[in-house]
Amino acid sequence: MPSKPEIRPLERDDRPVIESMLRQIPEFLPFEVDVALELCDAYLDSGDGSGYHVFVAEVAGQVEGYICYGPTPVTDGTWDVYWMAVAPEMQSKGVGGQLMAFAIGKIEEAGGRLAVIETSSKPEYERILRFHISHGFDVVCRVPDFYAVGDDKLILVRRLT
Amino acid sequence: MPSKPEIRPLERDDRPVIESMLRQIPEFLPFEVDVALELCDAYLDSGDGSGYHVFVAEVAGQVEGYICYGPTPVTDGTWDVYWMAVAPEMQSKGVGGQLMAFAIGKIEEAGGRLAVIETSSKPEYERILRFHISHGFDVVCRVPDFYAVGDDKLILVRRLT
Prior knowledge:
Chain A is an alpha+beta fold. Chain A contains 4 helices and 7 strands, in the order βααβββαβαββ. Chain A has one domain (6-159): Aminopeptidase, CATH 3.40.630.30.
């Protein structure tokens, strides 16, 4: 078990580390990485005003994961968890769970009622889906063929207190 | 029956007409109108590159409705119909149906497989929901309490040819 990660806001110097980490994760396609980085850039340019909140997890001085979430536009109390990732060599060591618990805590502090994750039904995402379910999310919706033919969108929801 | 509307791209001079029309439609709350106008502004600033395509319907030289749609990010062939509106005095006269048919035709031309609409389960939106169902959309999903407590998100899908 590594030491407990320190969770802190994303800084500009973290950007290449995040990019390299995302590109090493086989589940993420190149265009998905580009979208994930766009959200980081929006946050680096405009902070929380971008609509995105981005935090990194540092373990022994190294950035090993990050999470990106924000209030869902046009809703009262719903927040999206847009993206999270953990470096391949650090997966299954609790970093992801601590990032998620951190984000959920922040969302609750801000008065959030509902956390929402949209994800793919692709078999490659099954491990990610199981991670979210083990962190209190339920699959409430499926939009057939949304991402591509045979690749449905699943909507996961966790009710907050 | 009025003359068939002429459908053409949104221009900067239409902006106040669209704003005034949206503010006259009782179903749309002020913050929803603001979001609808943000999408129009993004299109006026950057054209299709904004990710939004916006067309207006002119009847007898007056702008009486508009539709805003665009390719859904991170999908292959899915398009969102983000917003449409028809001036209150011109509703139920076919303008909305012609705008929708126009947008669906354009989406099909661009190779779209799926058109998606997200809408509210509020009773005030029931007329809008019936409009979409009569234009070939099916409700495939419901996310309980998404917009607010008691206000679910409905996801409607129309498969294209």
